[in-house]
């Protein structure tokens, strides 16, 4: 046991020496001429040496629990993250993230004897801004995975500050989380995007986080969760247009057309010239057999856009369908003189209704020339009215 303890003690001394050497190399970089007032920087190789030694030290069990070692490490990597020497930055491409890892480790160790927390807080606030800018740089290069890592690391830093009772920058944090979610979305990492937006919800002052969350949940095909958060959001933001549209789409997809109508009316109040909303409202009325209101909506839509496929097809289809009971009566007539007379009367009525429907259907076909249902209706009209 004595030999083992001696070996461990020698290892601890060696690693402590590396911590001191790393600090000295960092000092040589910061004050190359020994003058604490100097604004010049030493050679980048000093930082490289410092990083190598401190990484070896914190990887060893004898010094991995030293808050001071991790504090020095945070300083070293923070200097690397801003070093103008591109070769050093290329060697440590995620230096700013290593700073965050060091702070997290210091929080985890929570050494009551560590006396440099005030300096650490200042450095944390500085690295948050650096991480945010690194995230923007990565995002602009379409490196969305790294952009997510940088933006989300701002949240990690703010979590450490909050755990130590420090005031956090909520504005920076909310922007960073929003950007992290967007970066994860662009990287098709829906799991991370969903987690980020959920974390963002409590600090949001508007509906944007909910809108983003519901959008990603839909893309991830988690429809039930998307519905849940849509309802939660509308309870807080009842007039938010994007959320209203989500609710409408859920109802329409589920065939709950009556339920969709009130939400459509709310959305149209905000955006009365939105053709898609007008069209959806007409369809909803049509589906519940409220043809009077359906026609009113379609006619309003034609005022907005006389060439609207939905409005022309909607009105033309409703008029066309009025001929079905007439045709049934015609089919049930016999061959007596009275029946033949009645047949001619009904045919005239049917053809006059066809004549009302045809202009609308012609406009619908002009808009969508390949629509099978419109073609079928016009072919029927042509065949039945041909003399």
Low-confidence stretches: 4-10, 35-40
Shape category: rod-shaped
Whole-number mean pLDDT: 91
Total DSSP E strands = 0
Secondary-structure element order, N to C: HHHHHHHHHHHHHHHHHHH
Helical content band: over 70%
Count of helical stretches: 19
Q: How far apart, in Å, are the first and last alpha carbons?
A: 113 Å
Largest sheet: none
Rg estimate, integer Å: 35 Å
Class based on secondary structure composition and strand pairing: mainly alpha
Tell me the strand percentage band. Answer: under 5%
Features:
about 375 residues; about 80% helix; mainly alpha; rod-shaped
Task: Characterise this structure.
The structure is a single chain. Helices cover 78% and strands 0% of the residues. It starts with a helix and ends with a helix.
Describe the structure concisely for a colleague:
The chain has 387 residues and is an all-alpha fold. Helix content is 78%, strand content 0%. It has a domain at 323-387.
């Amino acid at each position: 046991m004595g030999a083992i303890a001696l070996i461990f003690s020698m290892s601890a001394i060696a690693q402590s020496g590396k911590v001191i050497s790393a600090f000295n190399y960092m000092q040589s970089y910061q004050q190359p001429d020994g003058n604490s007032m100097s604004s010049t920087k030493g050679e980048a190789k000093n930082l490289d040496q410092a990083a190598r030694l401190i990484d070896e030290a914190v990887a060893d069990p004898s010094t991995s629990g030293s808050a001071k070692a991790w504090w020095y490490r945070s300083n070293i990597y923070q200097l690397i993250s801003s070093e103008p020497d591109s070769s050093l930055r290329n060697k440590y491409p995620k230096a700013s993230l290593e700073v965050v890892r060091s702070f997290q480790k210091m929080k985890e160790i929570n050494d009551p004897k560590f006396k440099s927390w005030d300096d650490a807080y200042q450095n944390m606030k500085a690295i948050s801004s650096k991480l945010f800018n690194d995230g923007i740089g990565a995002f602009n290069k379409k490196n969305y995975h790294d952009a997510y890592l940088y933006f989300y690391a701002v949240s990690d830093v703010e979590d450490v500050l909050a755990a130590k009772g420090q005031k956090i920058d909520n504005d920076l944090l909310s922007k960073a989380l929003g950007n992290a979610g967007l970066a994860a979305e662009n990287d098709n990492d829906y799991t991370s995007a969903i987690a980020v937006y959920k974390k963002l919800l409590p600090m949001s002052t508007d509906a944007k986080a909910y809108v983003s969350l519901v959008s990603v949940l839909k893309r991830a095909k988690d429809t039930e969760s998307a519905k849940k958060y849509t309802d939660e959001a509308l309870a807080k933001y009842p007039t938010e247009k994007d959320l209203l549209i989500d609710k409408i789409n859920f109802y329409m997809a589920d065939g709950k057309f009556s339920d969709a109508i009130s939400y459509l009316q709310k959305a149209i109040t905000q955006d009365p010239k939105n053709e898609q909303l007008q069209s959806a409202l007409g369809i909803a009325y049509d589906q519940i057999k409220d043809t009077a209101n359906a026609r009113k909506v379609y006619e309003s839509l034609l005022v907005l856009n006389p060439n609207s496929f939905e409005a022309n097809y909607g009105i033309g289809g409703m008029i066309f369908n009025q001929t079905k009971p007439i045709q049934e009566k015609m089919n049930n007539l016999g061959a007596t003189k009275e029946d033949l007379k009645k047949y001619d009367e009904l045919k005239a009525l049917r053809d006059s209704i066809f004549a009302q429907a045809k202009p609308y259907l012609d406009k619908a076909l002009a808009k969508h020339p390949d629509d099978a249902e419109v073609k079928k209706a016009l072919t029927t009209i042509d065949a039945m009215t041909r003399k």
